[in-house]
Please model this.
Amino acid sequence: MLRFAVIWGLLSGILGLTACSPSSSPHSASAPTVRVCWPRDPESLNPVTLPNAYAVQANNLLYQSLLTVDGPTRRHVPWLAADLPAVEHRDSLTFLHYRLHPQATWDNGTPILAQDVVFTLKVLNCPGLPNESLRGLVSFIRDVQTDAADPRRFTLVCRGYAPEYRDNSGEFPILPAYLVDPQARLRSVPLQQLTQADSSVASVAAVQTFQQEFNQAARWRDPRTLRGSGPYQLAGWQAGQQVTFVRKPRWWADGLKPATPALTANPGRIEFHVVPNPATALLALRRGELDVYPNMPGPDFARLKTSDSSSFRFYSPASYRVVVLEMNVQQPALRDARTRQALALLVDYDRLLRATQYGQGQRTTGLISPREKWVYHDSLPLRPYAPAEAATLLQRAGWQRGPDGWRRAGQPLTLRLFYSASDRTYATVALLFQQSARQIGLPVTLHPTEAGQLSELRRNGEFDLSLRTLYGNPFAYDLRPLLHTGSIGSGGANRSRFGNAASDRLLETIYATEDSVSKARLLRRLQTLLYQEVPFTPLFFEPNRLAVSRRFAHVRPSGLEPGYDLPSFTLAPAQP
Amino acid sequence: MSRWLAGLWLLALLLAAAWAQFGPAAGQPAPLNLEQLSHPPSAQHWLGTDPYGRDVLTDLILGTRQLVIISLPAALLASALGAVLGAAAGYWGNTGVRLRTSAAVVLLIGIVGALVTEPAEAGWWLLAAAGLSACTYASFLPATTLALPLDWAVLGAAAWLGAVPRLVLVLSLVALHAPAGWWLVSILTLTCWPSTARLTRTLVQQLRQRPYVEAGRAAGYSTGRLLWVHLAPNVWPSLRNTLPLNLSICLGLQTTLGFLGIGLSPDQADWGLTLANARLEPGAWWLVLSGLLALTCTMAAIYHLLPASDAGLAHLPTASTAADVTNSQQISTSIEQ
Model:
């Protein structure tokens, strides 16, 4: 009996009988239901936290920012703002003049005014809130000047000048004060006091009370609080399983003519199904339980394209998503750049590209996409796969090879490679890297880890090597969150812990440089520095492999995250 | 014939494990070949390749090493632990062992400490408790004693372990510690001993009432001698059947954990991981077939090792068994002398 039980259990697992549970069937033609596959949970829907790309995607259904990116055209377009901001330089300051859309209102019918922008900036600068990443994004905004004559007009006063200011100034979600701070506790606290990082502000009673209220986790799962000016509202969130949004019956942009893609919201219901296992996701897609499967693994995409082209449309636009092998430069064994260079030579880039990307994807020398020819450093050679050269470099770095591996001053060189479990691309990279390292006698242990736990380990620097995907865009080259020493730890995304005074200066100069020729020159210098220092070695840029059910039209695929325009989806006309 | 085949299959597994452990590729996983991902069986790869281009046959052969170094010791340890605990519970019951009150208190604190502390420190708590308990006998502390409810404790622990689904329990315990062979062996041992303990307890409880045991006790034989020389031979025919049963349970659990990707790193060859790779390539039937055939054959071979007439409690000793008669005669002789 036991043997039957074991065999049945194994068969059940293989056949994916525990795949997605059947969900509601797609309904009305005017407001269809779209079911999207997500590989992980968004972790938080708090609009100031946004821990991952899925949280950002969900937030863009609930909240609106002043500007948004139109994926197919790769341009910033007005969203909550009526127009793109007018930019004015005066002395050492930059003034960005905005006007909010005249018809924009909150769900309670009150208009969205400049005061709401001020309130949002107060929240983003308020100490004691989990707002580190967004605070960094708007750190250049010093104050907001409102217009007494027109409550929808306002001017953002910014320190210095950088070309990115115009776009960055419009990328934070505007929050409704009547829901986030119903007691108006922050009204009495001036924005300037918060932006100046005045330590005394944390002890202000109103701020402390606001912190306590804001940080109640239950608030950010409650559809009554989690509500902005976006076209959708949260209908349900089962952590690790499903997040559901439904279209608001009345949205302020419903009556606008002509409706721009940014101000369109066609689906009546959007369901994000969390399916970490790609095989289960593929099975669910084939069974019609999912409609959209973004970022598909290469082999699954190729197979589905061959077998189910009558049911799905396939897109694979080049993306700005690069897979890197990240190295923790603060680990004693990896402090020497030559050791890191040696490790970078143990990756068989070309074979990996063929095996995981199935002829798509593109190799790169750095973080900047080769498509961006004006800044991409094409003079740097693509790094080869050279184990023998890697062994030589290790010796130069002071490591001696013995019968029990590599040692330096008695310390063995053993490395732990962490990556997100259930990701086939990462597993292939990790196994191949381990095999190459074994060839030169270097032991590497593999640690596939759950996504949330992996984020924590990376934040705390508890790894030697890790596989990571970095999401970029062609608009801004502010790499400070990724490479600046100030971004090490929970406040930023510098997980390799790379950086020194010179690299920080270079990053800040790049950020502040207006002239595109100078900017390109500085960015090439940065790419050279990263190529030599190797805080990570980029493996390849992935295409955005996307499969969408043929029931839908107006997918608007693009290389920018999330790679498709969900609110634009409509039901495709019936085939004759 | 079928037992002969079963023995041959298990011998082949042992040889494969020895090759994986001591052969030319000792300690190394099957090599990746990214040019031959998910290839069906061919002359070059008899059982095909997996989604990482590894030869499935090599993977299965290397996987036997994991079975031998994890499931086999775990089954042996679980059987031994179950036999010891069951024998103690059956022989002494709830009143047979008396401890100094102070020693009992120290032991209790040690057990509670071991339960609430980090898994790595649990051993230290128990060791310290045992040492301190021993010290209490050499100290000036009052010599009052209390009965140790061994039977109650063993049955309670077995009932508790039986109440939680075994896989859920194993998954919870695996999450407490980083994947390591010894940890997996400990977990499988901890979760598989109750059935052996219950059987041993029942057998010993019945045997200890027999006249020859009473006679031995009256003759002043030590408890150890009674248990080892007079009770163990009568318990063994029934007890030996539990080893294959425990082995098949450990094998199933280990493979399930490997299938779920828990407890082993992905570069380690394991039958569960081989089966799990089939999920990456639903069309790769050879992965499912190879993995399942190997597992099914092994399970079947283990079950065939069970003597047909010895299953279950068929061997419960009776007064007329030869062993009883012999033992009784020996004891009677010694009393007369």
Summary: Chain B touches chain A at residues 28-29, 31-32, 34-35, 37-38, 51-53, 248-249, 252, 255-256, 259-261, 265-267, 275-276, 278-283, 288, 291-292, 295-296, 299-300, 303 (CB under 8 Å). The two ends of chain B are 50 Å apart (CA to CA).
